[in-house]
Amino acid sequence: MGKALIFFLILCLFVDYGFSWKKDEFRNCNQTPFCKRARSRKPGSCSLTVTHVAISYGDLVAKLENNQENSESGEIAAKPLVLSISAYQDGVMRLRIDEDQSLEPSKKRFEVPDVVVSEFLSTKLWLQRLEEEHIDDGSGTLTTFYLSDGYEGVIRHDPFEVFVRERGKNGKKVLSLNSKGLFDFEQLREKKDDEDWEERFRSHTDKRPYGPQSISFDISFYDADFVYGIPEHASSLALKPTRGPELEHSEPYRLFNLDVFEYLHDSPFGLYGSIPFMLSHGKSRGSSGFFWLNSAEMQIDVLASGWDNEFDSVLKLPSQQKRIDTFWMSEAGVVDAFFFVGPGPKDVVRQYTTVTGAPAMPQLFATAYHQCRWNYRDEDDVNNVDAKFDEYDIPYDVLWLDIEHTDGKRYFTWDKLLFPNPEEMQRNLADKGRHMVTIVDPHIKRDDSYFIHKEATELRYYVKDSSGNDFDGWCWPGSSSYLDVVNPEIRSWWADRFAYNNYVGSTPSLYIWNDMNEPSVFNGPEVSMPRDALHYGDAEHRELHNAYGYYFHMATADGLVKRGEGKDRPFVLSRAFFPGSQRYGAVWTGDNTAEWEHLRVSVPMVLSLGLTGLSFSGADVGGFFGNPDTELLVRWYQLGAYYPFFRAHAHHDTKRREPWLFGEQNTVLIHDAVRVRYMLLPYFYTLFREANATGIPVARPLWMEFPFDEKTFTNDEAFMVGNSLLVQGIYTERAKHVSVYLPGSEPWYDMRTGTSYKGGATHKLEALEDRIPSFQRGGTIIPRKDRFRRSSTQMENDPYTLVVALNSSNAAEGELYIDDGKSFEFQKGAYLHIHLTFANGVLSSSTISPQKFTSPCTIDRIILLGLLGKPKTALIEPDNRKVNIVMGPVTFLGSSSSAAPTIRKPGLHISDNWRIKVL
How buried is residue 128: exposed, middle or buried, by Cβ count under 10 Å (0-12/13-18/19+)? Predict the structure, then answer.
C-alpha cells in the first residue's frame, strides 16, 4: 500500500510536469559544472605541444605534452596524452586522443562500442610516410600526410592543432580542431583530502567517484555560411549562434537524451536523442562535416562572428579565411572524432553513414500510413477503428497499441479482459494486408511473479546503482529495473524474448515500438537514470547515457530478425537515438503538441534527423498533446503525408481524432491527404532504397539539391522529397496565400494540376484547403500507383503510372526500385532497379539490376508534363505498335486536377526494357 501511494504521488507530479514543461526540472549550463568550467576557458589557454610523431600500424601517432604551468590550477600536468590519426577512403580522417594506459590511470575511459561498422574499418589507408613542413611566419612545424585526392591531413606541433586542408603548402583549410586554443582534457586523478567531487541538483546527489573527466575543444568550419545537424532540438535547421556579442545569457545546444513532455519550440534544449554530428555548408566551398563519437552528455556552442575579438592579440593561429567556429564540451569519454571533407552535402552524409552504417531498408508496409493512439481500449475498439477506415475508404497499414494493452505494464503480456484473443485480432488485420505494432519499453516491472523480471534478476542482467544493487526506479509500472543492454550477452537474451514461444500472443504481422528508452525514470535526476549508476565493464551511466536507447533499439531489432529466422526485415520505432540508430529502424520527434508552431518546427526537426543518418523519421500527426482544431489537423495530415515516417498519434487525455470524426468535408480532405502518400509509395520506396545504399535522406533540405542557391540555405519551411518533389507546408491558421520559393532554372509542375511554374522565383499562391503546395521538378520522372486499396500490401501487383516532367531541354530522368517488400533477398540481388529517361522525344526504360527478380506489374498510364506541341500518337518499340496520346487527369485526387497529355494502357511490363517514341 505504501509503495502504491508513493508511485501515485510521483505519477501525479510527472503528469503535472508533462502538461506544463518546467524549465527548472532540467539543468542549464551554469548548473552543469563541466559546461560551466569549459565555457569559462579563454581562447589560447591550451598549452599542449605535439611530440614523438611517428607512424605505427599505418596511423600517425604522437604524444601531447604540457610542459607549461597551468595558469588556472597552478599545477603542471605531468601525464602526456596519446594521439593517433587514421586516414580512410573517401576523404575521412579519424582522430583519437586518450590518456596513456601505460601510466595506469584510475580507470579506463569509456569508448563507445558497436557504432562504427566493420566495413568502414576495412577502408583504412595505411600511411606510408609523413612530410614535415616549416612555416616561415613562425607559426610552427607541421606534419602532413595524404588523406585523399585533393586533401591532406595536418598536425601542427606548437601550438597543437589538427586540420584538413586542400593539398599543398598554401592549401585552404576545410576543418580544424584547436585553432582557437580551447582544447582541454581533464585527466583522471587521485582525489585530494579537501576536495568534494559530489554534484547536487535539486534533491539528487551524484557521487562522481572518479572526479572531473570532461573534454572540450573548438572546431572550425572554413568557408561555411551555416552549420546544421546535432539533433535533437526543436529549432531551426540552420543552427543559430549561442555565444558571442549580445548573446551573453544564451544556452549551448544540449545533447542529453531526456523524456521531455510538450517540449518548447525554437529552443537549444536537448530532447530524446543525440547525434554529435555537424555539417557545414557554404556557397563558395560546399560542405564539410565533423562527428564526435561520444555517448556522455554534450554541450555545443555555435560561436557568433566576433566572439573572439578581444583575444586576437593572444591567439597564435590567426586566419583570414572565412569560417564558423564551434565549441564542443562533453562530461566524459575520449576524443574519437571524424572529419569529413565533402565537398558536396550528399558527399558528407555519405561519408558519415559509411562510418555509422547506412539506414536499414524498411518493409514496404512501414513506409505507408500508421494509426496510433494511447490507447485503443480493447479488441472491439481495434475492430471498430479498422472497419471505419474501410467504411470511409481511407487506406492504412498499421494499427498501434500503447502500454494499456499489457497486463499491468508487464511487457510481452496482454490484458486478458481487454485483449483476450490477440492472435485472432492480428490475423483479422493481416487478412487485409495490415499489421499491428505493440509497445515494449525498457523499464521492467519489479514483480517476482513476472517472468521477465524473475529471469533478469536471477541472471543479474539489470543496471546497478552506485552501491552495486539492482537499480530501482519509477516508471509506468511503478517500481522498475532496467536491463543493462550495453552488455552484448544481455542484448542477445533480450532479443530472444521476441520469439513466438516467449512473446505469447504475437504473430508474424506484429512489430515493435520502443518508447521511454532515454531511459526515462520518473523519480530520477532530470527524469532519467542517475549518472553514477553502473553498467557492464564498470562503466558509469554518465559515460554512456546517450547510447542506452540505441542499444535497446538494437537488441529489439535483432530480436525481430531472430524471430523471423533472418528472413523478415524488422520494424522497430524508437524514441531515443544515437549514431547508428539508422541501422535498426525508425525514430520520431517525440511528444509534440497540437499547435501550429509544432507543425512548423516538425520540418527542420525531420530534416536534421535525415542529415545525420536517420532518414526514417517523422512527427506525430496532429500533435501528441492537446486537441488540434480541425484546420490544424487537416494541414498536419497534408504535410505528414510527405514525412518519411507517417503516423498519427495522440495522448489518452485528448479527444478521439480518427479521420472521420470531423465532418464529411474534413474527412474527404484527410482521405485525400492519406491517398497522396499511397499514390507516391513507389517513389518513397525507391528513395528508401537510395538511402539504404548511399545514406542520402528521403526528406532533404532544399540546399542539398541546390547547393549554390543561397536563398535555400535557411529555408526550412519547404523541403525536397528525393530530388524530384518540393513540398511547402502551410503553418498559419486561416491562411489566404502562401509564398513558395522554387529554386533552380528549370520549370516546376504543380503535382495536382500539372501547371508549370518558373524556377528561380518566389510565387505567391492561393492557400487551398484541399492541399498544400507540392511541385514536381522539371527534368524528373516519378513512379506512382494510382489504384487505391485498403493497404499497401494489396497494391503489390497494381499497375504503375509514370509522370514525366520535362525540363527546358525537353528531357527527364528517374528511377524505380522494386523488390518483394519484406525480406532480405534484395541483399542477394533479388530486386529490380529501373532507369527511366526521356530525351529527343523518346521515353526509354532499362533495367540496371541483376536478373534475379521479376514483377508482374504493368504500366497503366504515362503522363507527359511540359510536352511541346500536340502530338496524337506514339510508337512503342521494339513491337512497332502505335498508341494514342490523349488528354487525361494528372491525378485522381479531389476535383481540381487538370488534364495533361497521357499514354493510356501502353501494354508494357514494368520489368521489361522498352522505348516509346512520341510522334
Answer: exposed
String of b and e for 772-799 (b: at least 16 CB within 10 Å)? Answer: bbbbbbbbbbbbbbbebbbbbbbbbebb
Instruction: Mark whether 381 is an active-site residue.
Output: no
For residue 69, pLDDT beyond 80: no
pLDDT band (50, 70, 90) for residue 879: confident
Question: Distance between CA atoms of 203 and 526, rounded to whole angstroms?
Answer: 11
Under a CB-based contact definition with an 8 Å cutoff, are residues 865 and 720 in contact? no
Q: Which three cell numbers stand for residue 448?
A: 517476482
Residue 43: other Cβ atoms inside 10 A: 22
Q: What is the dihedral of CA 511, 517, 523, 526, to 10 degrees?
A: -140
How far apart, in whole angstroms, are the C-alpha atoms of residue 604 and residue 583? 22
Q: Write phi, then psi, for 874 (nearest 5 degrees).
A: -140, 155
Give the pLDDT confidence of 224-280 residue by residue, as tens digits: 999 999 999 999 999 999 999 888 779 999 999 999 988 888 899 999 999 999 999
CA distance 246 to 672: 48
Instruction: Name the β-bridge partners of 125.
Output: 87
Residue 699 and residue 644 in contact, taking contact as beta carbons nearer than 8 Å: yes
843 contact partners, CB below 8 Å, separation of at least 6: 802, 804, 836, 837, 862, 915, 916, 918
Sequence-distant (≥ 6) Cβ neighbours of residue 351 within 8 angstroms: 90, 91, 92, 289, 340, 341, 342
Q: Phi, psi (5° rounding) for residue 692? A: -65, -35
C-alpha cell at 602: 516538425
For residue 312, is pLDDT > 80? no
Indicate the Cα dihedral angle 269, 275, 278, 281, nearest 10°: -90
Cell numbers describing residue 167 = 593539398
**Rounded distance, CA 112 to CA 333, Å?**
8
Q: Given CA atoms 517, 624, 647, 386 in this order, what sign does their dihedral have? A: positive
Residue 895 CB-half CA count within 13 A: 4
Asked if residue 97 lies in contact with residue 61, where contact means CB atoms within 8 angstroms, the answer is no
For residue 757, the surrounding DSSP H or E stretch is strand 756-757
Please list, residue by residue across 231-245, b when 16 or more beta carbons sit within 10 angstroms of its beta carbon and e when fewer do.
bbbbbbbbbebbbbe
Query: pLDDT band at 6, cuts 50/70/90?
Result: very low
Which segment of 23-37, 225-239, 646-660, 671-685 scores lowest on mean pLDDT? Answer: 23-37
Count other Cβ atoms within 10 Å, centred on residue 898: 13
Q: Any long-range contacts for 681-684 (C-beta under 8 Å, 24+ apart)?
A: 681/364, 681/367, 681/368, 681/785, 681/792, 681/795, 682/783, 682/784, 682/785, 682/800, 682/816, 682/818, 683/721, 683/722, 683/724, 683/725, 683/782, 683/783, 683/784, 684/367, 684/644, 684/721
What the block records as the C-alpha cell of 334 is 575520449
List 184, 515, 526, 746, catalytic entry: 515
Residue 297 confidence (pLDDT):
98
Q: Any catalytic annotation for residue 766?
A: no
Active-site position among 591, 705, 717, 815: 591
Among residues 504, 452, 464, 484, which one has the least CA distance to residue 552? 484
**SS3 (DSSP) at 638:** helix
- Specify whether 716 is catalytic: no
Residues 377 and 682 sit within 8 Å (Cβ to Cβ): no
From 574, 685, 592, 680, select the one nearest 636 (Cα to Cα): 592
Helix 681-694 crosses helix 345-356 at what angle (to 10 degrees)? 70
Catalytic residue from among 184, 331, 518, 526: 518
Look up cell 537499480; give the residue: 471
Please, are residues 297 and 546 in contact by the beta-carbon 8 Å criterion? yes
- What are 723-767's pLDDT values in tens digits? 999 999 999 999 999 999 999 999 999 999 999 999 999 999 999
Q: Which residues pair with 227 in a beta bridge?
A: 280
